[in-house]
Amino acid sequence: MEASLLFDVLLWALVLALGVAVLALARQVGVLSQRIAPVGALTPVHGPKVGELTEALEAVDLDGRKQQIGGTSAGEATLLLFVSPTCPVCKALLPAAKSLAAAEGLRLVFGSDGGEPERHRAFANEAGIGKFPYLHSQALGLRYGVSRLPFAVLIGADGTLRGRGLVNTREHLESLLESWRTGIATLQDYVREFDPVQSEEVR
After folding, report:
1. Rounded to an integer, what is the distance from CA 40 to the centroid of its chain?
2. For the chain, which end, N or C, has fewer CB atoms within 10 Å of the first or last residue's CB respectively?
3. Angle (nearest 5°) at CA 96 between 199 and 62
4. In this predicted model, what pLDDT tens digit does every residue of 115-165 receive, in sequence order?
């Protein structure tokens, strides 16, 4: 009987200890959520600035069709995603890019500036993006300051650059749309406005 009572006491003590631990962890999560800035596409310092009017650039896609990127006569908002057959993150991001473009009514275009066109064509077919324009153009990558992949560029229907940056997740892609809606061009600008101390770290 005494052993059973002792066991019950120890069990309740363990339950209380676990409850205290859970409350402490919940408090720490709340503190961290306040300290950590929202994750978004990281915009490089070089290249065109968000809010600037883009110049029209014409390129031929893998199917031999002429495609215009940017410019005042763009006519529809465009999500341009730079990818590579050798980039596993790029391939993982493709479903998110397709669903986001469909949900937001964006023209989805893929771009790359390296490797053999045939390799890109095989990659596009294997990844299920063969129906989208796929541009193999070094000039396009240089125009928008692409340095690492996957890299996304969002251009408004009026040809204005609405967002650009390195994107590794759906949340990064969505951050380009949020910057368009809120008028805050980049993650760096957000941090600089709301947390001047952390802005130095983002730089």
Report:
1. 7
2. N
3. 105
4. 899 999 999 999 999 999 999 999 999 999 998 999 999 999 999 999 999
Three-class SS of 45-106: CCCCCCCCECCCEEEEECCCCEEEECCCCCCCCEEEEECCCCCHHHHHHHHHHHHHHHHHCC
Q: In the chain, what are the helix, strand and coil shares in percent, each to the nearest 5?
A: 45, 20, 35
β-strand pairing of 78-82 with 57-60:
unpaired
Question: Helix/strand/coil (H, E, C) string of 98-134?
Answer: HHHHHHHCCEEEEEECCCCHHHHHHHHHHHCCCCCCE
Burial status of residue 120 (CB atoms within 10 A of its CB: 0-12, 13-18, 19 or more): buried
Contact 150, 74 (CB under 8 A): no
62, 136 Cβ separation under 8 angstroms? yes
Q: Which residue is it, tokens 């990844």?
A: 127
The pTM of this model reads 0.74
Per DSSP, 41 falls in state -
Amino acid residing at 50: V
Q: How is residue 75 written in tokens?
A: 């006519």
Cα distance between residue 37 and residue 54, in whole Å: 29
Cβ-based neighbours of 7, under 8 Å, separated by 6 or more: none
Q: The tokens of 124 are what?
A: 């596009």
